[in-house]
Amino acid sequence: MTSQLTPTDNPVLRVAPATPAAAAAYFGASLAFHADVSDVAAALAAGGDPGFVVLDSRSTAAWDQGHVPGAVHLPTALVAEQAPGLLDPAVPVVTYCWGPGCNGATRAALALAELGYQVKEMLGGFEYWAREGFEFETWQGLERRTADPLTAPADADDCGC
Fold first, then answer.
1. pLDDT tens by residue, 71-85
2. Helices 79-86 and 104-114, interaxial angle, to 10°?
3. Which helix (H) or strand (E) covers residue 72, if one does?
4. Is there a contact between 29 and 120 (Cβ–Cβ < 8 Å)?
5. Which residues contact residue 139 at a Cβ distance below 8 angstroms, ignoring those fewer than 6 apart?
6. Do residues 57 and 76 lie in contact, with contact meaning Cβ atoms separated by under 8 Å?
């Protein structure tokens, strides 16, 4: 016989879930602030103008290791000074940094928003771009790694989510 945890003993339910209306507002807002690497890659691969610019907010050394093809390189510390000369304020910007353990893209997005840009952050950053098997650019040319089956389906073009 299995025993059920009471809500106070259950670490998941110790704080009650949000109401459906509050959850819808939160998750809707999250999608307004974030895009994932698969969606960014699909929009860029569709051809033509994707309607946004991708901004790599990492250092030059990191950029040289690999970056999203077509991305603009603008380190976070230089956003306030250089964004007006590099970016059109009428075009939304999608920022990225190294990966989930780095908040450089978040800081770059904040700096851009404070300058009046529409901005989203690419969840997973360059790490997940490479791990999902998308092509990236280095000083040597274009490269691609085999998709990590823990981040992308092995036998499908997309995860279906």
1. 999 999 999 999 999
2. 70
3. strand 72-73
4. no
5. 64
6. yes
